[in-house]
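Supplementary Methods. Inverse-folding protocol.

Structures were first reduced to a discrete structure-token string of length 393. This string, shown here, constituted the complete conditioning input.
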């Protein structure tokens, strides 16, 4: 794929697909990370003499105009991050889009309305993609986190105009390539979260790629069950035990070492500060539930990480949203951050809760790379081709 360095954009209108699907509380953006991360691309387009026209989705309006999902609500935060005037177009195609593009003076940025207000967006309708293409000269995709969707603005459009990856897309792809494509070995993957069923493909792919696979969170309980260990009232998918067993066998064949908790923190209630105790993984009382990995497990993980050169992280190791059951996640994340800062480890993290957990541990800045992607990061880790990336050539 090409980058911004490879396309001449002076005097051109540059349609730039971004992901500004940011969390909001009323009219306030509560986490501006995704907006902040697209600033270098927008600035670069302007510096090269192009006029940036931002195309993006917001939430899931399912092809209907839903005023609460208007991107007009995100415009003030975008203007603040860019320090530039943003001209808003009330539709992502047609006259309103053309008028907004015409109204933007050099150095100003155009933001077009939610692409998902058109049913053709998610259907990757060629007619909608052609209407979008008619608005500009060049297509830049900076939305890695939406690249797992084959939509008109992420896939169809890329095939109709000269296309390039934006700076954030470029950084995401390079980081993931370094972590799983052609990594420095040994490689460890940390996979946590509640359910095995949502991460089966991920685990099946990882055991063929990494040297160490750390399984944490509720998922680990299912693996303990697969090994014949009783987990009391813990969250566990007992019907997935056989599948978990298959993954353990596949890992053994591939030479991937699986690390499950050796000790666990158990409580009788699923709530913050519930009275708790630490027991061996085999000794969960029948009336208790596992809410975190214990300190011995953390020590073992630290030793594994210290021997690795690359680490990829997706999902917390315990019920990190409930103190003190965030302890293992926080301690393990701190260990990764330290090794990274010492220059001994390349660490890449992404997906759903993960970034929130690392922020809670106060170490997100100390990882080599934190992805802005949720679902796209997972699909990439599953070894899938992301249509939005494939369309860039
Ligand atoms: C995300 O928030 O992960 C992306 O913006 C994709 O959103 P989607 O899951 O609604 O396609």
């Amino acid at each position: 794929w090409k980058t911004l360095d490879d396309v001449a954009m002076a005097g051109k209108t540059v349609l730039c697909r971004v992901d500004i699907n940011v969390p909001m509380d009323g009219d306030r953006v509560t986490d501006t990370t995704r907006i902040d991360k697209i600033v270098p691309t927008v600035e670069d387009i302007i510096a090269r003499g192009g006029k940036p026209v931002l195309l993006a989705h917001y939430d899931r309006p399912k092809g209907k105009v839903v005023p609460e999902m208007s991107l007009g609500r995100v415009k003030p935060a975008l203007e603040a991050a860019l320090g530039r005037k943003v001209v808003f177009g009330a539709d992502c195609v047609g006259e309103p889009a053309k008028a907004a593009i015409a109204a933007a003076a050099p150095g100003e940025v155009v933001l077009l309305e939610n692409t998902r207000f058109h049913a053709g967006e998610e259907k990757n309708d060629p007619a909608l993609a052609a209407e979008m293409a008619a608005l500009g000269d060049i297509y830049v995709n900076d939305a890695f986190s939406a690249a797992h969707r084959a939509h008109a603005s992420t896939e169809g459009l890329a095939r109709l105009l000269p296309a390039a990856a934006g700076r954030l897309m470029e950084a995401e792809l390079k980081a993931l390539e370094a972590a799983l494509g052609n990594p420095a070995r040994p490689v460890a993957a940390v996979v946590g979260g509640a359910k095995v069923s949502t991460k089966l493909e991920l685990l099946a792919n990882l055991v063929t790629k990494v040297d160490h696979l750390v399984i944490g969170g509720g998922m680990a309980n299912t693996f303990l069950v697969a090994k014949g260990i009783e987990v009391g009232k813990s969250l566990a998918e007992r019907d997935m035990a056989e599948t978990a067993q298959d993954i353990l066998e596949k890992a053994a064949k591939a030479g991937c070492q699986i690390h499950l908790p050796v000790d666990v923190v158990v409580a009788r209630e699923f709530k913050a500060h519930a009275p708790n105790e630490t027991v061996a993984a085999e000794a969960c009382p029948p009336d208790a539930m596992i809410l975190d990995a214990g300190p011995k497990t953390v020590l073992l993980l630290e030793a594994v990480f210290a021997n690795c050169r690359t680490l990829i992280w997706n999902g917390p190791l315990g019920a990190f949203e409930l103190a003190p059951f965030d302890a293992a996640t926080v301690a393990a994340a701190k260990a990764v951050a330290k090794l990274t800062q010492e220059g001994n480890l390349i660490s890449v993290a992404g997906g759903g809760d993960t970034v929130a957990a690392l922020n809670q541990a106060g170490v997100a800045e100390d990882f080599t790379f934190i992805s802005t992607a949720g679902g796209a990061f997972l699909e990439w880790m599953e070894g899938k081709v992301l249509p939005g990336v494939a369309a860039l050539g």
